[in-house]
Amino acid sequence: MKIITTIATVVCLHCTVAEQIDPRREIHNAITSGERAFLDKARKDSALLRDTMQSDSTMFTAGLPPEVHHLSKIRGISSKDLDQSELERTIVKANKGSTEAAYFLGLFYLYGLVDLEPNEEIAAKWFGKSADGGHKDARIALGLLFDSGYGNIKQNSQLAQEYFRLASREDEGNTFAHWLYAKSLFENASSFDFPEEKLDDQMQEAARLFELVSSDFPEAVHSLAIMYEYGIVKCDTDKSNFIKAAELYQSASQQGYVESTYHLGLLYLYGRGLPQNYQKATELFQIAATHPFRPHAQSMRYLAGLLAHGYGVQYLGEALQWYDMCSLQTHAEVHKLCMKEKEMIANLIERAEGKLLAE
């Protein structure tokens, strides 16, 4: 008990006043942190995933934007169905002006099929020819390459947004195109240099499209929740924006979207529109931190801080374990914070134990 009392004098790591949060920075961090972590892990595991592709009937190349894999699944493309003769036929048709063949030839080069060397620049050239002819999937593929800046393709978010816009506009039933366009609108408008005079219109259009595809993409539900939480869109019922945001975070969280679990935990931690509840926040951070596919580094950090500072019950040993796990994650900024806070707690424990021995 004495050691806990001694350590309890430390300043709280997580006592930021909610009203002091910079909405645009929070929005920007919220929509990029999950993507960054996913892509970092994909690139790290590229060799393993490349080997897996050889025995899998589904095309897959590690490091590409996850949406590209989704696109190949939509098209029902299997690497086992393709051979040299199919490649030659595709080349002939593409050179004769077939937009469909040009699109598929782009996929041949993008994925390095039929013993071709993967070449995103040649892929982009053929996607471009197909997109110029009105092929919506080629527009999506080209938009994805420019959006991510994959390989030697220079990132160009504005050009990506235009390709997504064209694909979305020309096919009302293409929820994937609507999602990508909405995501692009949201991300670009959330950047710090986006013109204030255009901000409201672009955010409202993004919100409309997120709502349109919310039944298909939990990420869209999460993005809507962010917009409600920070007042970008207003709730049209008697509910507060925070309550609406909490409901949307809960919905996306139940669909397995870990960022929403984390954000719901923050609402409970800071009492943002919900009764402040450290126990509930701890439970949510633990769910996010132990996600089977994408363990959430920031949730590990908050969980460690709550355990270390005795919100509910104080478990110093477990707190240090979570700091260790957090420090192993790929997010550089979170890694640095976790290492710093772990060292601070460990030093306090050592000093407290030394004080007890001296007594």
TrEMBL record:
Belongs to the sel-1 family. Coiled coil: none annotated. This is Uncharacterized protein. Residues 1-18 form the signal peptide. It holds the Pfam family Sel1. It comes from the Eukaryota. It comes from Cyclotella atomus. InterPro entries: Sel1-like, Sel1_AlgK, TPR-like_helical_dom_sf. Keywords: Signal.
